[in-house]
């Protein structure tokens, strides 16, 4: 996880940017919703197509809207979800072996 300053008038806020590689998500081969240490990740067919063509690509994790709380889920009949929800956003292509060594073990 990297942090970069986000410039705002009169304030500087750290913006957290998380990226994942195909190796970090266990080389998944099917689209779906998977539980990882950071929360639930939904992987779409297009995401897998990119990893099939560029196995070293890294995707930005994008947090989706918060899932219903357990008490709210019971009241509405919706499924309760534990943890944060993410999907894959923009991706970067890396041909640099230093990047692969640094992030593959993470």
Strand content: 35-45%
| Unreliably modeled segments | 1-8
Q: Tell me the quaternary state.
A: single chain
- What general form does the structure show? globular
Spatial sequence of strands, sheet with the most strands: 3-6-7-5-4
Topology:
Layout lengths: L1 E7 L2 E7 L1 E3 L10 E5 L2 E5 L1 H9 L4 E6 L6 H7 L8 E8 L4 H8 L2
Parallel strand pairs: 5-7
Antiparallel strand pairs: 1-2, 3-6, 4-5, 6-7
Your description of this structure?
There is one protein chain. It is built from three helices and seven strands, in the order E-E-E-E-E-H-E-H-E-H. It is α+β, with helices and mostly antiparallel strands. It has one domain. It has a five-stranded mixed beta sheet with strand order 3-6-7-5-4. The chain starts with a strand and ends with a helix. 11% of the residues are buried.
Briefly say what this structure is.
The chain is an alpha+beta fold and 106 residues long. It contains three helices and seven strands, in the order βββββαβαβα.
Task: Provide tags for this entry.
two-stranded antiparallel sheet, 5-stranded mixed sheet, single chain, alpha+beta, globular, 106 residues, 23% helix
